Amino acid sequence: MTTADHSEAPQLPISRVNFAKSAPKAFRALIGFDAAAREGLDPALVELVQIRASQLNKCAYCLHIHTTDARKAGESEERLHMVAVWEEAAHFFTDRERAALALTEAVTLVAHGGVPDAVYERAARHFAEDELARLLALIFTINTWNRIAISTGKAAGTDER
User: Which of 4, 70, 116, 156 could form a cystine bridge with 75, CB 3.0-4.6 A?
Assistant: First the structure.
């Protein structure tokens, strides 16, 4: 009689799909959409939006990428630490950045009450209509990237770009 209990054997991680390789047309389309969204927007603002959405979605992979990119672009450690609490640390961010962060939160958490008119109107005061459309597209793309990274099991620090 053996006393080995095979039910407690360590489980190997499930291999997940490599989205870029398995759906190359969809992947390239998303890259194109992302590039079009960023066009004409301040690169620092782009990173702040991507960081905040990634924090809300708990996407460590994307958070690592965008905080790294923000640092390379000259963003301060102080501001990076304050993104998660931007409302309480409002003086670290411009009115325009705060409007973009508020819109990012509303769109990212859309199931929690939609995008309130006050949030949308605040963003519309700081962005021309074409900029606002691209800002929304940027928020859509980072939320999609977050979902891809989380669903396919991407690990923070393994950036494959």
Answer: 70
